[in-house]
Amino acid sequence: MKGDNIFLALKDFENDWGKRRDKPKKDVQMWKKRSIFFTLPYWKDLALHHNLDVMHIEKNICESVIGTLLEINGKTKDEINARKDLQDLRIRHELHP
């Protein structure tokens, strides 16, 4: 299927998280989940939807981790908003602001 066709088929699709308790019937639609990438405006126009740029993903994650560990100014992800997120999630109480 082309990206436009998939996008239209999944336009109003709602993800059903978790395991199914009943066996799906054969006539049930074939989609289980809608990729979060379909929220990107250009995703339906890509020739290869599964082609992620691993090199840049690794680079960004590595920079984030190194920036946080070494506390590089402007590169660290450990800031007040991250601490407030921990507080909202009620985890890591020792790191709350």
Describe it:
- The chain is mainly alpha-helical.
- It has 2 domains: 50 residues, no CATH class; 42 residues, no CATH class.
- Helix content is 34%, strand content 0%.
- The N and C termini lie far apart (49 Å).
- The mean pLDDT is 78.
Summarize the structure.
It contains 3 helices and no strands.
Task: For this entry, give a set of tags.
97 residues, mainly alpha, 2 domains, 3 helices, 34% helix, extended
Largest sheet: none
Radius of gyration: 20 Å
Give the overall shape: extended
Distance between the termini: 49 Å
- Tell me how many strands there are: 0
Q: How confident overall, as mean pLDDT? A: 78
* Uncertain residue segments: none
Strand content: under 5%
**Which structural class should the secondary elements be placed in?**
mainly alpha
Order of helices and strands: HHH
The tally of structural domains comes to: 2
**Helix share, percent:** 25-40%
* Secondary structure tally, helices: 3
Write the layout of secondary structure elements.
Blueprint: H1 3-9, H2 54-69, H3 80-89
